Automatic annotation (TrEMBL):
Zn(2+) 2 binds at D53. Residues 1-75 form the PDEase domain. PROSITE patterns: PDEASE_I_1, PDEASE_I_2. This is 3',5'-cyclic-nucleotide phosphodiesterase. It comes from the Eukaryota. It holds the Pfam family PDEase_I. Belongs to the cyclic nucleotide phosphodiesterase family. PANTHER family: CYCLIC NUCLEOTIDE PHOSPHODIESTERASE. It comes from Parascaris equorum (Equine roundworm). InterPro entries: HD/PDEase_dom, PDEase, PDEase_catalytic_dom, PDEase_catalytic_dom_sf, PDEase_CS. The active site is at H12.
């Protein structure tokens, strides 16, 4: 389940992912997007929106660079 991949951090959490997914759902229902993207592309976009911050640690890129982390490359 996608929700389990999200940490309990202040912003990049499941609530944020759900909000992004909801926006995506509303977006892909518009005629412009339906005509521009295939069904598979719309599904891929929706899944990407739900999963875009999985395992985000809640820190900034600057913090990751200073602590010689590598996760900043993914977010």
């Amino acid at each position: 389940m996608v929700q389990k991949g999200y940490r309990d951090v202040p912003y990049h959490n499941w609530s944020h992912a759900f909000a992004v997914g909801h926006f995506c759902y509303l977006l892909v229902r518009t005629a412009a997007v339906r005509n521009a993207l295939t069904e598979l592309e719309r599904l891929s976009l929706f899944v990407a929106c739900l999963c875009h911050d999985i395992d985000h640690r809640g820190t900034t890129n600057a913090f990751q660079l200073q602590s010689v982390g590598f996760q900043f490359l993914f977010f």
